[in-house]
Specification:
Keywords: Chaperone, Coiled coil
Number of strands: 2
Structural class: mainly alpha
GO biological process, one term: protein folding
GO molecular function: protein-folding chaperone binding; unfolded protein binding
CATH class: Mainly Alpha
Number of helices: 2
Shape: rod-shaped
Distance between the termini: 18 Å
Number of domains: 1
Order of helices and strands: HEEH
Oligomer: single chain
Protein name: Prefoldin subunit 6
Organism: Gymnopus androsaceus JB14
Radius of gyration: 26 Å
Helix content: over 70%
Largest sheet: 2 strands, antiparallel
Strand content: 5-15%
Length: 126
């Protein structure tokens, strides 16, 4: 076996490992995105509930096992701030997803090119 073929096989192996790592990274980022979606939904629901409150309603915040009375305006502000943060994180994650998907496509193309070259070099001359 020529050293050229061996070198190509090693490149293919390394590219395959890289691709697997990229896929794992993609999986982790998708999972983080899903958690953010759940948090966004939950906080939007809380915001809708806050919209139905009257000034006489009392708001409680859970701190550990205890419910502590909280100012309505402060509670609403906290939820708004949290929503802003979650939306910013989602934008950041979306950018990260696009970058990882681009890396994945580039690595896939590299693997196909290596495989094609390997096949061409493995065939005996006609």
């Amino acid at each position: 076996m020529s050293s050229s073929l061996q070198s190509l096989r090693e490149k293919l192996q390394a590219a395959s490992v890289d691709f697997q790592n990229i896929q794992l990274e993609l999986s982790n980022v998708v999972e983080a995105r899903q958690k953010l979606d759940a948090q966004l939904s939950e906080n939007e629901m809380v915001k809708k509930e806050f919209a139905t409150l009257t000034p006489e309603n009392i708001v409680y915040k859970q701190i550990g096992p205890v419910l502590v009375k909280q100012d309505q305006a402060e509670a609403k502000s906290t939820v708004d701030t949290r929503l802003e943060f979650i939306r910013a994180e989602i934008k950041r994650i979306e950018t990260q997803l696009k970058d990882i998907e681009a890396k994945s496509e580039k690595k896939k193309t590299e693997i196909v090119e290596i495989q094609t070259t390997l096949q061409q070099q493995s065939q005996p001359p006609a």
